[in-house]
Structure formats: structure tokens, C-alpha cells
Write a structure and sequence with these properties.
heterodimer, A: mainly beta, Immunoglobulin-like, 10-stranded antiparallel beta sheet, 1 helix, about 45% strand, flat, B: about 325 residues, mainly beta, extended
Chain lengths: ~280, ~325
């Protein structure tokens, strides 16, 4: 073998080593990557979308408030009345959650799917025009039209902007508290008070009647029950002012009556939210 | 040309390097010397073999070590990747806390009774929220400048789907707080059964349930009356979910003799329709302590519906392992 042959052997050795090295580095990375993926906590594993992800959640003209997307669907002006219709699309996960079943009068059961539950309450809106601002909003949390009293002869073309200035979202609460003859009223949440209305003896039982007063019924849905051993099931009277009748069978009724409020209250969502009407004008 | 003249060697002229008589693996150089490919091929194979052996050794001997000389902060890389994805697919301000759900703290309520954080959750854009289960954190910590505080409780509610309220002890001031979820990686379930004498009222105190690996649930008190009950428990070695069912064995509803429907005491969420409340609540989330009223279903106990025995079933679920999730910003009002 001459010098060229030796050189050829050396070059071939290097090429073979480099080729195997390149493959090897890739293999090692793949092996390490696989191990990292299986050992990483699930919250750190992210599937990178193959295509360009959307810049909106459900609609290009949406306004996201807390965990819901508000999508304007209509706008109409008649006389001094301006109405902006909208849909609320939940963004919060609810997979596997069964529908709500309400027991109504005569035992009639009403079913509400989880997706139909109000995820936010866009309470106060402001319409900006070239001639000033008009404040309005939906009549209640289940309404899907924000209404405004505008000047006569108002034209939709005058609108320069729309924003939500007060938005609320329901959050669960569980509040243990006590009532007594000395302290018969307790505020258990902002704008929600519970009052001891009456205590009566019935054989070995004590009947405790409490009232729930909510400044804005749209802002809370609460139920009060006994807390701790000695209480039978509570019964709710929703006619007029909400009242709960509780039956204590645990012996002498404690002077500080232990109770538990559960349900949800509307919490203000910080900030103002611009509503885009581009798809309607 | 005569027949006596020597014939030219046309075969030599016509010979091609690819002719069969050419030595395989050999080629003539310009100066006519023969170059063999065999040593080169063997050398290349040898080089590949040597490096492959090194690669295999590297994989086997140090599987956790990246080959790159530069240290790689995998956590930082993961966080950057998460940031890149969530900024495009989650609503503004949400932080991806699992691979399917993002969360944001909407409000903080500090009172003399407790500190409550209102947490919204959302799925990334394009995902169907009806196909994604709600966030079910093992527990949460509120990280403050002087250290973390562990949650006292977390709640979900029927009227606030996808929203979670996380409770902490009363806190005077929140400086640069972060809310950190801890997520279960697997869970173990144990069903413990206790037989009690049939008479009511009766109670069970100080009953320990061993879930394994240093995890326990202590039933601190179970009180059973004639149609009512209450249970209180605490967990050690991690958070737990506890469901308690009291069976009055031998009871039956005479109105439905074709089926055996015992009188039971259960938590409200296990009832077909909670009595009085009108709405079946969602089951409790993980907690370190818990207490629940037990509500009767089935025929009331009485002379015509007496229990022969009372069997209490505790279904306990505890995470096998928890991992720290991404920290979430907490608004403090400036």
C-alpha cells in the first residue's frame, strides 16, 4: 500500500467515525429527550402546535373576561334604545361534570347543562360616541342583551367604542360561622348577611330559622346548613326573602349556633374590557 | 495485411475498468498503480464501530447527562416553551398549570377570618372545554417573601364551574405573592369498612386508615343519628379526598319491594338529589382536613325499618406523588 492508499484509509476511518458520531449524538439526544419527557411532571409537557395557533379563543371579535369569551352578535338602535346582543362562551374546563338538576315545584326536575351556566356577568357597559358616553348593561346575569338609553335620533354609526366597565364572575364559597341571640346577624360575604330569625323547641329538637339577605340577588347564590354533628337536613324556603329551616337534634342547642354557608358569590373582575363591534358595523 | 503479421491486442485496448477480469475493489490510478477500496471500507467501518461503541457507552453509563458540553437548564427551557405557547393560545394573564388547563388569579379577599384567592381556569384556544376535566390540584401554596403558606382548603361549586376558591390563613400583607399549584402524579384509593352495632346514635372516633407509603387519613369523629350524620377527618402524608357512606344493613323501602334500597347516609354530592338544597353539589376537592354533613336517603329508620347492623365505608384517595406546577401571579391591587 503506497502513501495514497494509507491516506485513503485514514480519510475513510475519519469519515466513518464522523458519520457514526453524528448519528450517535442524535441518538443520545433522542434517548435523553425520551427520558425527560417521561419523567417530567405533566404540567411541563407541552405539545407545540403544528400550525400557527389562533390569536383568539373562540371568535376574532371576542372579549375575554375571566374564563368566558363574550362575542357580540347583534346591534340595534330604535328611538332612544340601543341594544347590543352577545353570546357568552365558556372557556373553563367542565369535561365530565354532570348537568345541574334543580328540583322545582311539584318535584319537577329542571336540567341545565354545564355549558349553559353563567360564567361571567358583564354588568355595566359604556358606549362611546362622538357626542358623549352612555352607560347601560344587561338587565340581569342571564340576559344576553346590553341595553342603553341614548339620545333620540341616535345612529349606530356614531359609536366610536364600547367597553365593559364592571364585570363579575361567580366563585365558590364555603364559610363556617356562628349565630347567637347576642349576635344574631353576621355578614358572611360582601353584601350577604345571615340573620337568626327564630328558635323554637319541638320535643327533643330545636327548630332554627335563619334568613339570608343579599344586597344584590344577582351577586350571590348561597345556602345555609348546620355545621357539625346534631343537625338534620336543612330545608330552604325561597319564596320572598330566602329562609332556611334547620333542625337540631344534638341535645341542648349551643349558644353559638354553628352554621355553614356554601354556594357562590360574584367577584368583581379587575379592569375594563373593550368590546369589538367590527363584525357588526 | 497478411496472416503472418502479428495481430494487435485489441482486447487490451478495449478493456474497461468495469470488465469482469478487473479485480473487484481495485482501480488504477493515473500512473497505473492499483488502489484497493477494501482497506478504505474496512477503515470506515472500524471508525464507525469505535465511535458507535463510545456512543453506546455514553448512553449506558450516563443516561441523565446531556451530550452537549454547555449546561442546559431544562426547567428554564420548559418554562420558555410554556410561555411561548401560552402567550398565543391562552387568554391574557393565564398561566399554563397542566398540559390542558391554564389558570389566573382574579381577586384576593383578605379578611380576619381567612385569605381567599379566586382562581379562574381556561383551556387553550381551539380546545373544547367540554372535553377537558376541571383542574384538580392536590393542593396550593401561596409563596410570600417570608416563605410559603399551605392552603387551608380549596372549593369548587356548581354555580361557578371552572372557578376555584383557594383558602389560606388570614394574612396581614401580601408582598410579591405567587400562587403555586401542586399536582398529583398518580393516586391510590383505599376503601376501609367498619362494622358498628345497629343502635343510634352511635359514633366512631380516632379511626386510622393506612393508604400506604406513610399516608394516612384519621377519622377524627363520625357521629351517626337516626337519619343524620357528620364526619370529620384529617390527612397525614399528603392531601386526601374522603367519601363516607353509612349503610343501615337490613333496611329496605317497603314502597319498592322489588329492589333492595337500603337506608343510607351519604355526603350530599353522592345523593341523586340533595334534600332541600335542590342542587347536587360537586364532590370536594383534595384537602388536608375535611368535614361533611351526611344526609339520609331511603326510608327513615323506625320500628318497621330497623337496621340489623351499621356498616361504614370510607373511600379514601390520596396522591401517590405531587409535582410543583407553574407559579401564578397574584394581583395585590398595586
Amino acid at each position: 500500500m503506497n502513501i495514497r492508499g494509507i491516506l485513503l484509509v485514514v480519510v475513510a476511518f475519519v469519515i466513518g467515525a464522523l458519520a457514526a458520531g453524528g448519528i450517535g449524538v442524535r441518538v443520545i439526544r433522542e434517548v435523553n429527550t425520551t427520558e425527560d419527557a417521561t419523567s417530567l411532571p405533566p404540567q411541563n409537557i407541552v405539545t407545540v402546535p403544528a400550525t400557527e395557533p389562533p390569536t383568539f379563543q373562540v371568535d376574532p371579535h371576542e372579549t375575554v373576561v375571566a374564563s368566558a369569551a363574550l362575542v357580540p352578535v347583534s346591534i340595534e338602535a330604535a328611538g332612544t334604545d340601543l341594544g347590543i346582543g352577545y353570546e357568552l362562551v365558556p372557556l373553563a374546563p367542565y369535561g365530565g361534570v354532570p348537568p345541574i338538576e334543580f328540583v322545582g315545584g311539584f318535584g319537577v326536575v329542571t336540567t341545565i347543562d354545564a355549558a349553559e351556566i353563567d360564567h361571567i356577568y358583564p354588568k355595566t357597559w359604556v358606549v362611546e360616541t362622538v357626542n358623549g358616553e352612555f352607560e347601560g348593561g344587561p338587565a340581569n346575569s342571564t340576559t344576553r342583551v346590553a341595553r342603553f338609553d341614548v339620545d333620540g335620533g341616535f345612529s349606530i354609526s356614531e359609536i366610536t367604542g364600547v367597553r365593559i366597565t364592571e364585570a363579575l364572575a361567580p366563585f365558590p364559597v364555603t364559610v363556617p360561622f356562628t349565630l347567637s341571640q347576642d349576635e344574631p346577624t353576621v355578614e358572611i360575604a360582601h353584601g350577604v348577611t345571615v340573620e337568626l330569625l327564630n328558635v323554637s323547641e319541638q320535643g327533643a329538637s330545636s327548630i332554627v330559622q335563619v334568613g339570608i339577605a343579599i344586597d344584590d340577588p344577582e351577586r350571590a347564590g348561597l345556602f345555609v346548613a348546620g355545621d357539625g354533628p346534631g343537625w338534620r337536613s336543612a330545608f330552604f324556603e325561597a319564596e320572598g326573602r330566602p329562609r332556611v329551616n334547620l333542625t337540631w337534634v344534638g341535645g341542648d342547642l349551643p349558644s353559638d349556633i354553628p352554621l355553614l354557608a356554601t354556594g357562590s358569590v360574584m367577584v368583581p373582575i379587575d379592569g375594563e374590557f373593550v368590546v369589538t363591534l367590527d363584525g357588526l358595523l | 495485411m497478411t496472416n503472418d503479421e502479428p495481430r494487435p491486442d485489441y482486447g487490451e485496448l478495449m478493456k474497461s475498468p468495469y470488465d469482469p477480469d478487473q479485480k473487484p475493489g481495485a482501480q488504477r490510478s493515473e500512473n497505473g498503480s492499483e488502489l484497493s477500496w477494501k482497506p478504505a471500507v474496512v477503515a470506515a467501518a472500524l471508525g464507525a464501530f469505535v465511535v458507535s461503541a463510545f456512543v453506546i457507552y455514553a448512553i449506558v453509563s450516563s443516561p441523565d447527562e446531556p451530550l452537549d458540553a454547555a449546561p442546559v437548564d431544562s426547567a428554564a427551557s420548559t418554562t420558555e416553551a410554556l410561555d411561548a405557547v401560552q402567550s398565543l393560545s391562552l387568554p391574557e394573564g393565564f398561566t399554563m398549570v397542566t398540559d390542558t388547563v391554564g389558570a389566573r388569579v382574579e381577586a384576593v379577599d383578605v379578611s380576619a377570618r381567612a385569605t381567599a384567592l379566586s382562581v379562574s381556569t381556561a383551556v387553550p384556544g381551539g380546545d373544547d372545554p367540554g372535553e377537558v376535566p376541571p383542574l384538580d390540584a392536590a393542593y396550593w401554596e401561596l409563596v410570600l417573601q417570608d416563605g410559603p403558606r399551605r392552603m387551608t382548603a380549596q372549593y369548587q361549586g356548581r354555580g361557578a364551574l371552572g372557578s376555584i376558591t383557594v383558602g389560606f390563613p388570614p394574612l396581614a400583607a401580601l408582598r410579591e405573592p405567587k400562587l403555586v399549584p401542586y399536582l398529583e402524579v398518580g393516586a391510590d384509593e383505599v376503601v376501609a369498612t367498619v362494622d358498628l352495632d345497629p343502635g343510634v346514635p352511635t359514633s366512631l372516633d380516632g379511626y386510622e386508615i393506612d393508604v400506604g407509603d406513610g399516608r394516612f387519613v384519621d377519622i377524627e369523629s363520625l357521629v351517626i343519628g337516626d337519619g343524620w350524620g357528620h364526619v370529620a377527618w384529617s390527612a397525614r402524608g399528603g392531601p386526601a379526598k374522603v367519601e363516607t357512606v353509612v349503610r343501615f344493613v337490613g333496611t329496605d323501602d317497603p314502597a319498592t319491594p322489588e329492589v333492595s334500597d337500603e337506608t343510607l347516609l351519604t355526603p350530599p354530592h353522592l345523593q341523586a338529589l340533595a334534600q332541600g338544597a335542590g342542587v347536587v353539589p360537586l364532590p370536594p376537592l383534595y384537602g388536608f382536613t375535611g368535614s361533611e354533613q351526611l344526609i339520609r336517603s331511603g326510608e327513615p329508620l323506625g320500628a318497621s325499618n330497623e337496621a340489623e347492623a351499621i356498616v361504614v365505608e370510607f373511600r379514601v384517595v390520596m396522591p401517590r406523588e405531587v409535582v410543583e406546577g407553574s407559579a401564578i401571579d397574584v394581583p395585590t391591587g398595586g
